[in-house]
Amino acid sequence: MNRTLIAVTLALGVSPALATPADTLVYQIASAIASVEPTQAVATYDVLPVVQIYEGLYLNNFGKYEPLLATAYTQSKDGKTTTFTLRKGVKFHDGSPMTCADVEYSMRRTLVVGNETSQAAQIRANLLSISGFTPEVKKSYTFAKLASMVKCNAAGQLVLTLDRNVPSLLDSITQVYIVPMKTLVAGGDWSGTAKDFDASLGKDVSNSVLAQKPVGTGAYAFVARDPSRFVLKGFDAYWGGAPKLKNVILQKVDSDTARVLALQKGDADIAIVPDRDTLAKLKGVAGVKVYESLPTQDLTSVILFNQNIKDDKLLPAGQLAQSNIPVNFFSDVHVRRAFAALFDTKTFTRDGLQGFGLERHTTLPTNNWAEVTTLHPPTFNLKTAETEFKLAFGGKLWTTGFTVPLETYPGQGIADVVAGIFKQNIEAINPKFHAKVNTLELSAANAQLLGGKSPVSALTWGGADPDTNLRGLYSAGGILGPATGINDPKLEKMLDQARDAVGQAARKPLYKALLTYLNTQTYGFPLPQPLRFAATSASLKGYEAFNKTNLLKVLSK
């Protein structure tokens, strides 16, 4: 197999007109692969090979957590202790069996090494609330504490005991990749003991032994790499069965034109296409398949209203004038409902998303397990907007009028569309209503948003767990708290109850009640979700499944 793979690799390097073999995937990407050390990798083109080579205990399959190197888990009633039953018969690419000791070491190592921008640092922040290994943190975060937190029991199960219930635990677990302990220790990595624990805290391991020669349990094993190519081969001893495509070549091709041409000529099976205009030119091309409406994962696009605008150019709270708005303009629910009814989502989809947008039910991502498909967000209706405006500020707003400032950013066409829709419909409904559109640099706009100075904000938010999404968007203590000015004790109580319940079955009805309440309050509303696009060879099968999992093992020809 190695000789065949080398021949294929050389052929691809020498003869760009040669169509890809039936057992080989050529994936042309737009950037070089830097580090494939699993605790460090966060960039898209680093994560792509990482998830083929390494595996976690669970897989996030488009919002559903499926067993991978674990077969099941149980949790204590308070949610603090989680016990994972491990899959039997799993082998690493070097032929050694995966044991509970490897899983224990891998989990502990993730909670030890990795600089502040690493994947490991993000996992530590979620599970342990550690944002960095400051001198203060090091006083209490000891090897003994880590060893009691992560350990194998007598039955060979991994037991994870945290200080609190972490609702997004499984999402973090999917990103803790299992590695062979002996290989790392022999290569000079953390020993897994107390002797070099302090020296390893937060250590940058981008050039670890795994970064040089990756060894995991995934469906594909590492073969070779150079600055423009990363080569993998199917792992015949893979516990889930050897993948159908035996060879994978990830090629860095800087030129958009060159990638598209390679796809047309049959020299690439997948090629990164820069935009929808280029994609349109590939429709109908022999040997090419175009995907225009692929779902996105764990992302939500929303409009948020700021109830406490921190801008001294605005009027004092409650004071109305046709030339301005008061700082508490959006604290009136009728104003929020009116603005939501003013927004034409069909126009937004047509002009902002080129016709490719998915209608939404709530401000949760469409693939989220807590999404409630029976709910309906505000719809575009000028009559409804008029009725709500006439109720706002005790009926005074309709007769007094207002001028609301809106923001756009250079190079952000969607922001222009959002501001344009609001301006057109605001000024059409009442001659005393006005919108003033200001253009800000994106960095300045972000600072204004987080400083609480923006009255209306259009943004994309992420996170796999509903608590991550909803707390960030609506809680006074969330990162967007200053941007929304929301101060709603009932909402905070509902957020806490839904977070603290243990298990999805217990949490889901609580989120349904919470999302229903948010619909009535209209603190924000969802935008249609942008859909992804892609182009592949017509012979490639399973790309829709790959789009949801990022696993090349689901592909075939």
UniProtKB/TrEMBL annotation:
Entry's Gene Ontology molecular function annotations: peptide transmembrane transporter activity
InterPro entries attached to this UniProt entry: Peptide/Ni-bd, SBP_5, SBP_5_dom
Signal peptide: 1-19
SUPFAM superfamilies in the cross-refs: Periplasmic binding protein-like II (SSF53850)
Domain called Solute-binding protein family: residue spans: 64-477
GO biological process, one term: peptide transport
UniProt keyword list: Plasmid, Signal
Keyword ATP-binding on entry: no
Keyword Transmembrane: no
Entries under Pfam families matching the protein: SBP_bac_5
Gene Ontology CC annotation, any one: periplasmic space
Protein name (database record): ABC transporter substrate-binding protein
